[in-house]
Amino acid sequence: MTIAATMPAVRASELTLRYGRTLALDGVAFTLRDGVTGLLGPNGAGKTTLLRIVATALAPDSGQLTVLGADPRTGSGRLAVRRRLGYLPQDPGFHPGFTAFEFVDYVAILKELTDRRARHQEVRRVLASVGLERQAGKRIRALSGGMKQRVALAAALVGDPDLLVLDEPTVGLDPEQRMRFREVIAELGERRTVLLSTHQTEEVMALCQRVIVLDRGTVRFEGQPGELADLAAGRVWTSGAREPRALASWRTGSGLYRHVGDPPPGADLVTPTVEDGYLLFVDPSATHGGEDA
Amino acid sequence: MTGEEETPMGGLGWHVPDGELRRYADRALAPPLLWSTEAHLSACASCRGRLTGAAGPALADDGWELLAAELDAPVPGPIERLLTRVGVPEHTARLLAATPVLRLSWLAAVAITLTLTALMAHLAHPAVFLAAAPLLPLAGVALSFGPRVDPTYEISVVAPMHTFRLLLLRCAAVLSTTTGLSLAASLALPELGLAAVGWFLPALVLTTLSLALTPRFGPVLAAVAVGAGWVALVASTWSAGDAGPVVFVPAGQLALALTGGLAALMVVRLRRTFETPRRIR
């Protein structure tokens, strides 16, 4: 069965949420299917708010939301979602003094695994799936940042959830840890729906089958990463000097300047990347025409 | 193979019957037969050999898994061991042991505070103790739930286990421990007789009231507001009678009980707001 043929794991329309006078989400609509979907956007775009709503940690002020076929507005719907959900918050906290095993064991109890033996088997399984079987007995405070993230991911994997919501799972990790994390997430995305937020366009390119660009509480793009890159076709060029009229202009490793925006006549156009397409959306002056909201 | 037979040592001995050996291999044997079978197996090579034949390699794999599980398994701390000893299920004890204020440091702080308050009650007025003791469970409950004090709060909220149930479990644990310590401290005021436990009802009421206000103001602000209100109430009614504040006389206690009942109704009514909180900070 192809990804496109499967039933949507999440369907959202007109989601709106305010924090006081701040409109955090403004009529957000999107669909999630099997595979990894990246939620891309600048700081303050509403990514964490949206992930928390999908994870049932927060209720929207208005709008429709269906998660794994259930309605999270009702008590039974919320419970049905939570039983099939794995959530990695942006800043996962740990009880001081817990070992990796103890923390995941604690989360497993919260996930209704009460039988001690079955629960411990599950804890060992998820710790092994993120490569932490040898660190199971270590205090979390003694683990590196990458390992702590893996412990939190292991906790999210308890119960083999159908939907994984990961809020910036690779932030603060070094390249090697990031690569290891990508491998794990890519593997997880083969059998379930994964929604992850990130600032990094290369992560979207490396991992995601689909991408949603969120900016100031609004979905600016939803589609495949390649389609996002294609939107910048004809609007990316290189030259030997900075271009002040471009939306973005920077010196690359080759010594040439790369520009995104409206090219001058005869410009040396180059193949756009996902980042180029993304820049068109997050820059306020670049959002005229061509958006797939 | 049953009954008495010659043992490898040359004497007569009992061997585990085949049926029981199979049930042991299937882990279906219950105590006390399980214990006697295990004791025999540890001493009888012949029966161990028969067990190997009856069970096959799967049992050995299971055994290694069990051993690994036991080695990895968390070692319960003193509070967790105490809870399981008094009949709390193992998984619930595990959850309670992670309650931020159920640590020995908190309990020690409560004990010291109660001791000092009891001393002050001797020096000043017994009502000092009755007024101060209810503030301890109030503080304990405020510090056992919410994103500011519980590092796993966000994960707890989206877990299938009801957040409200977890909150009540923690409240019950905090109330039980502080009540125990306060009862012990009450023994230092024998001259008050039964009136020495006059703090109990206010403790329940203040805690319930702060829970009712938590969805609106968050656990810390709710507890601070309720605590401040309590102190103001005690201070403002202090001169109303020789026995101290009127809240500790029967009429005052009745009014408190009614307030607590209303607060409990509010908590029940608001229980769903704990599951997708907007204002709990």
UniProtKB/TrEMBL annotation, chain A:
Cite the PROSITE patterns for this sequence. ABC_TRANSPORTER_1, ABC_TRANSPORTER_2
Residues forming the ABC transporter domain are: 10-241
Give GO MF terms, alphabetically: ATP binding
Q: Which SUPFAM superfamilies match?
A: P-loop containing nucleoside triphosphate hydrolases
Segments traversing the membrane? none
User: Mind listing the UniProt keywords for this protein, alphabetically?
Assistant: ATP-binding, Nucleotide-binding, Transport
Which Gene3D superfamilies does this chain map to? Answer: P-loop containing nucleotide triphosphate hydrolases (3.40.50.300)
For this protein, the record's InterPro entries field holds: AAA+_ATPase, ABC_transporter-like_ATP-bd, ABC_transporter-like_CS, P-loop_NTPase
Q: Which family does it belong to?
A: Belongs to the ABC transporter superfamily.
Give the protein's recorded name. ABC transporter ATP-binding protein
Automatic annotation (TrEMBL), chain B:
TM region(s), chain numbering: 101-121, 127-146, 167-188, 194-213, 220-241, 247-268
Keyword Chloroplast annotated: no
The signal peptide here is none
Is Phosphoprotein one of the keywords?
A: no
Identify this protein by name: Zinc-finger domain-containing protein
Q: Which UniProt keywords apply?
A: Membrane, Transmembrane, Transmembrane helix
